[in-house]
Design brief:
183 residues, 10 strands, 4-stranded antiparallel beta sheet, single chain, rod-shaped, alpha+beta
């Protein structure tokens, strides 16, 4: 049995302009929906990435400052120090003497643009400088020392990181550290 294909298509005249416009319209709606979904996925990923960068910068600052502040030594009843910015004088200077070998050390935290810079000086006077965090908003980053006659001093820190991109993100953390007392 032989089928003639030429007979099947004999009465076909093609698509009308209305049918063609309907096909283009439906395709456009489908493609715009897919495009919107892709945009939202990329936008959400960009925002999450920016926020994670801000979080990591604050975590780095908290790590180094709290580690150094726990080693630092203060007299038991120092006068209360009002909050200060890391960019103004007095800079944050922490000093200590190690119990196991009586070597001294000190750390100074300063500002370099939007970077928080840590300068460690050992007992021989050798200094090592490194950037511990970037994108720090120094207008909203503070430290202070409070103490009373009966309690040990407490160092209080507030660190803010702001990433200024098309999708800005800010992260702020406040923490307290009780340094060692002088013997």
């Amino acid at each position: 049995m032989k089928i003639k294909l030429s007979g099947l298509f004999r009465n076909q005249k093609g698509m009308t302009l209305v049918e063609l416009m309907m096909a283009v319209g439906v395709t456009g709606i489908i493609l715009s929906g897919i495009g919107f979904v892709i945009y939202r996925v990329l936008d959400t990923n960009s925002r999450a990435s920016t926020h994670m960068t801000a979080v990591k910068q604050v975590e780095n600052a908290v790590h180094f400052i709290s580690r150094d502040a726990e080693k630092a030594q203060f007299a038991l009843n120092p006068a209360a120090v009002s909050p200060h910015s890391f960019g103004e004088s007095p800079f944050l200077v922490l000093t200590w003497v190690n119990d196991f070998d009586n070597t001294a050390g000190s750390v100074t935290y300063t500002r370099d643009g939007t970077k928080l810079v840590r300068t460690y000086t050992d007992s021989s006077g050798q200094a090592a400088v490194n950037v511990v965090a970037e994108h720090i908003d120094f207008d909203r980053t503070f430290w202070g020392l409070t103490a009373s006659q009966t309690e040990a001093p407490v160092l209080t820190f507030t660190v803010t990181s702001t990433i200024n991109t098309a999708k800005p993100s800010t992260e702020t953390r406040s923490f307290q550290v009780i340094p060692r007392s002088l013997p």
